[in-house]
Structure formats: structure tokens, C-alpha cells
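INFO batch 0412 | record 1 of 1 | parsing
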Amino acid sequence: MPLFAPLNRPIRDWQGLRVWIVGASSGIGAALARALAARGAWVAVSARSREALAAVAADCGAAAVAEPLDVTVADDFTRVRDALLARWGRLDLVVLNAGTYRPLRAWALTPQAIRETLQTNLFGAMDGVAALAPMFSAQGGGAIALVGSVAGYGGLPKAAVYGPSKAALINFAETLYLDLAPHGVSVFLVNPGFVATPLTAQNDFHMPALLTPEQAADAIVAGFGRGAFEIHFPKRFTGVLKLLSLLPRRLYFPLIRKVTGL
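INFO prediction complete | emitting C-alpha cells
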């Protein structure tokens, strides 16, 4: 493969592509569903909230499908997968976007908070892939997108569980690429910076380079069009965090404390 060739098959023509977005009742997932439907994709949206899903599906046009799903229930993935295959015959792209966030310092950790975050952010994504990878391999094509976070690049204050869950997701996506790319299956890793969603509304600190969900959706669509493995944005913010993660810990820790004030 040439050094600068796309790692994935670029997705530029969305007309008639069958896309399933998990975690689409609000925020990035809902905005991405609307953006892809506007480009001609057939969109299925999943999350726990039936009413919110119905509203998003209505925005996406008559071809859109709302399929409620709880990512903490592993069997829900196979149930909805089979329902969509029965309706459409195949899937072209699945975006695993469901996630939760609770600002936590080390002294505020509880077993319940740890397990709730990992169950949604990590185990839910892994259960989704377990239901999808054999199907895509059998098809000989398709794409899986995992939505992580720049919080997975390195340790950050108030991310005692969220950060590790996203760091593990980044590693998982890299491993998936090694396994699935030879079978013709694209694997995309989406690492957003701060995006204005109900989850980030919990933050009581300044969020640099804050984007709207619609801006995030546009960045993701552009990344799909490039065939990029990692889609990270906004680069003026994510680039800084990438550089910080390369520093020796002796420099990284004081810089993070200075930048965050925590």
C-alpha cells in the first residue's frame, strides 16, 4: 500500500447506502443521521429513548427507521441487526456512537460509576462489533465506525473512568483494523474534541474549540470521504493533545495541570 493511500475505502457517494447509527437520539449521533439522510443514505437510528428516536427518524425522511436498543443488553444488537437485514438485505456502515460521561476525580470513584461507564462506552461497543464483524466479513465489505474521544489520548482530570474507557476503545479500533481490513471491512475511529451535547453540558470548566453537533457531523462525513482511519477534530485542538501525549510524563503532568487548572 502506498504510504499516503487511504487506509479505508473512501465513502463519498451516500445515495442508497444503508447506515445504522447506534446512539442517535441526540448530539453527534442525531446530527450525523440527519446529515447522511440529507445526502441520500437510508438511515436506521437506535438508542434507548423511543420518543427522541422517532423525532430524529422523522427528520431523516420516509426511508428512515427507528429501532430502540439498549447497548447494555448484548442481545439487542443481534435483534436489531437481524431486523435491519430483513428490511434492507445488507448494511453498509454501522456507527457505534452510544456513550456516557460523568465527570469524576479519583476520590469520587464508586464501583457503580465505574461499571456504568465501562458497560456503555466499552463493553457496549465491543458487543456491537461481536454482532457485526462476522456479518461484514461474510459480505466481504462494509464499514464499522467507533466513536471515541480525545480524552483517550492521555490522562486528564475529571476523566477517571471516561478517559480509560475511550483509551481502550482506541486500542480496540486499532486491533479491529488489523483483523478486518484484510477482509475488505473498513474500520473508522472517530475522536472528537469538545462538542456541545447533553453530556458535555455537565462540565463546569471552559471547553476550548467547542463545536456544535452539526459541525461534528460534517467533520465525520468529511473523514469518511477521505477514507481516514482516525477522524479527529477540530485539529487546532486535537493536534495539541496529540503532541502533549508524546511528551515525557515529567513534562506532560505539569502542562496538563497548568492548562486545565485542576
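INFO post-check: The first helix runs from residue 27 to 38.
INFO record closed
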